[in-house]
Amino acid sequence: MLRGRGAFRTRAFFVKGGGEGKMKLLKQLLATTLVFHLSTSSAFTPSCLKPPGKHLVQNALPRGQRGVSVQKSSRPNIHTLRGNLESSVGWIGRPGSSMQVPEPRMAEMRMSQLGKIDIDGAQIQYDYLPGDGPVIFYLPALNQTRHGAKANAVKTWCRRNGRSFLVADYYGTGKSDGEYSDATITRWAKDAAALIDWLKKEHDHDGVIMVGAGVGGWVMLHTAQWRKDSIVGLVGVAADPDFTETLVWPALEDSVKQEIENKGLAVITWAGKPYTVTKALFDDGRKMQVLNKGPNSIPITCPVRLIQGLGDEEIPPERALELSDCLLSRDVVITYVKYGKHALEDYEDDFRRIYFAVEDIERQVVRQNWLRNMNRPV
Length: 378
Fold this sequence. Notes:
By secondary structure, the chain is an alpha/beta fold. It has helices spanning 21-31, 54-58, 78-83, 104-108, 149-160, 185-203, 215-226, 243-251, 254-263, 279-287, 318-326, 348-375, and strands at residues 11-15, 68-71, 113-119, 122-129, 132-139, 163-168, 208-213, 231-237, 265-270, 273-278, 304-309, 332-337. The strands form two sheets. A ten-stranded mixed sheet has the order 2-1-12-11-8-7-5-6-4-3, with helices on both faces. It has a two-stranded antiparallel sheet with strand order 9-10.
């Protein structure tokens, strides 16, 4: 019997590559109930699930490294979090961010700037927090505004750590102009691209890390292709590209499909939650699919971190693997969360995964810049 102080949630890394074995291993994880306890011994860990060397984990499994590992999660001391913001806390002891962090009280005094920007005749409401480093640009999930739980958590983390942050209400939602019945993936992606241009012009920001939740993960994939020079990394939280065409539409009854065609929208129940879906969203979604063109077909080469719950009730967990295969980037790491639901906002650890993913991308960017400067002729 394993001995320890308590159970922990499983964290599994899937690194891009590995062939057909990835899907088989994922199905084994989905079909098996694994209960782990804190233990210093690895004798009880199956060989296929043993973690890689410490240097591989700390560098977020660099490009070319294939494999899977299951890591334990221990709750960090809250006093450590508040008193030493730049220190490393979390599941795998990753090094802290390379950015200089201001004093906590000074950082929390920074005020965000609320405003509207005109994009193609519509006023888009945004919330911008000035700071250092790449801008953390959060894209909400479907039917959510800029005040969602994850948006507020990421904003608070950025404020405490002196980082820049941006979030906006989608066209047709919240306090932004437009009719929701006219909102599309194309419109939202173009608005996000315009906001990135605004950041560069008005605030002299030249680096952006996009964090997309749900449909926001679909939106960021298109925006990242249109603004390659500005995007330094992507974080997908239960990202669900192509969900309208491959998941929702096939599951709808004929009567609901007819209602959408005739009235332009309908309120459906998906995984026990009400969603307002529109004809425009479905029609545009067919044109904006990204997973139907084969491996390495999405021309995105920046670091990508995907966080996916194994207990997701809205999209299959395999969707993250499909997206990884379609991305051209070799620096793609998937984090699977045992029992994690679609929202991934039930526990503080769910938010911390986003923070660490952002810091991981920052370290990769610093490393790439250092290597680029080293190879530059004197």
